[in-house]
Amino acid sequence: MDLILILKFIAGICIVISIIPHLYKVWQSKKVRDISLLTFGILTFGVALWVVYGMLENDLP
After folding, report:
1. Rg for the chain, CA atoms, rounded
2. Rounded to an integer, what distance in angstroms lies between the CA atom of residue 44 and that of residue 16?
3. Of 11, 12, 38, 42, which has the highest C-beta tally within 10 A?
4. Dist. CA 7–CA 1, nearest whole Å
5. Which tens digits make up the pLDDT trace of 25-55?
6. CA 42, CA 29: separation in Å to the nearest integer?
7. Is the dihedral of CA 18, 22, 27, 33 positive or negative?
8. Where are the domains of the chain?
9. Secondary structure of 40-56 in HEC code, one letter for each residue
């Protein structure tokens, strides 16, 4: 694997796991108000872009 591929995998993993602290906080508090809707929306959009990029490049998203 070359450096660019490794960086893509690390970036994708970071984006996907970045939502875990928010979800854990909601799970513990049982209050959905604790999630920042803007942050969650931007994160979801970023993940969707990674998936589209992967499909367009015939690469693993």
Report:
1. 14
2. 9
3. 12
4. 10
5. 888 888 878 677 887 788 888 878 878 878 8
6. 23
7. negative
8. 3-56
9. HHHHHHHHHHHHHHHHH
